[in-house]
Amino acid sequence: MPDHLFVGKSIPRTIEADKVTGRAVYINDLKRPGMLYGKILYSSQVHARIKRIDTSRARQLSGVRAVLTGRDIPDVRVGFLKDQTVLKKEVVRQFRDEVAAVAAISPEIAEEAVSLIDVEYEPLPAVFDPFEAMKPGAPLVHETDATGRPRKNNILPLPWQFSAGDVEQARREAAFTAKDRVSTTWVNQCCMGTSGCIAEFDQSNNLTLYSPTNVIFGHIGQPSEAANITRVAAWPGKRYGS
Predict the structure, then answer these.
(1) Which of 53, 201, 203, 215 has minimal Cβ neighbours within 10 Å of its Cβ?
(2) Would you identify the CATH topology of the domain 34-124?
(3) Predicted TM-score (pTM) of this structure
(4) Quick one: average pLDDT of 79-95?
């Protein structure tokens, strides 16, 4: 076998020493020249139609550089099924759906500007249980699919099946079989690093993203539909508890 640098060898990890000694630079430690700070206004409704968004007071606040709603940006679709817009402009479908974004010269000013945005909602019927959501006549979470075709129910076309060996024979020969329905509580990893991202354009309009991620190509894929991304810098601290 050729003499590889890493393949087939035990390579010691080197970043842990920086983390435990405080030398590691996390995303919230990174500062860039002229950096602005962004804050998001999240939905206060679980399911509602957006009737009106008034951003005038937020735009007039000193230190605010930009205020955006879903009507100010291209209709870029994100998410697993490409059925989510970056900012919602017609309907919110859960608490914390993104409704507006603010950029300001400090986090405090951005936070204040978000509090000055006034949104008028029209509440819509909601579902809170996945089994209730699958029943006929349940309120639709999405009225259309990602391609714009009307939806008839909330069941997504995501078939998935895994089997190994002869499952039916194993079932026939088994001394005992069990079938049950189980559920778990909400679980999330406890990362040492703050979730976030810093985006920096150069003079040629190339974009560099700094993000605590271990899925670099996933971060390149979706934003590159709207910008020329030249680099994604992976930052430590957001890897399932690291």
Answers:
(1) 203
(2) Aldehyde Oxidoreductase; domain 3 (3.90.1170)
(3) 0.79
(4) 90
